[in-house]
Amino acid sequence: MARLSWMSGLIPSRRSRKRHVVRVLRAQGLYGPRFRDVLPAFAGVVAAVCAVAAVLAAGYRAAGIVVPVAGVAFLALVVTAAIRHGRPGARRRIGYYTADELLELDTQGLALAVARMLRRDGWRVRLMPAPDRPRLCARDTAGRRIDVAFRPVAEPLPDEDTPHPHSHRGDQESPLRLVVHRGVFTARDIRWARREETIHLLDGSALRQWAAGARLNDLLSPGR
């Protein structure tokens, strides 16, 4: 009887230690989601599968085997495209970056990322690399031009020229100048930009929104 009593006292102790370890791992985000956390997504997947199966069955009854075969082929193409689009390399090539990926880029990498985002929005981009201050020149289908600079301080240095120091023939309107910064602009930078009608500042918050899929025109709208 004493042995049974010793064993019965050991089991709750092990369980309590296991519960403590699970709580610690969950607090650190290392244990994984609980069933109630994944239940809504699981129910959604089941409902989607059932709906697709019902549609294919109805198509089979209405038009024969052609509808299910075409539906399965279409779903396969959609899944394949989604997997390819979700890969980090493919996603970055078409101009989508996560916040962590933006932080890992150096200045040259950030210039390439912004060039890809501009192309995603329909701009034709020319990258002018430089060891310390790369630049971008872009033009959209409406003929508008934009010059992009990358530096933590918006106000130009004494030896710094604009990307287009010479005027373009037939271009009466000055190009939009965009200064990209992954951090936060100072009040001095903002006052400098407000004095110039063609200069816009794109800080880290707006850059992350742009990299996630927002359009540049929306981010530069006057109401923002």
Automatic annotation (TrEMBL):
Residues 155-224 form the MOSC domain. The chain crosses the membrane at residues 38-59, 65-83. The keyword Transmembrane applies. The keyword Transmembrane applies. Residues 161-174 have a biased composition (Basic and acidic residues). Residues 153-175 are annotated as: Disordered. Keywords: Membrane, Transmembrane, Transmembrane helix. This is MOSC domain-containing protein.
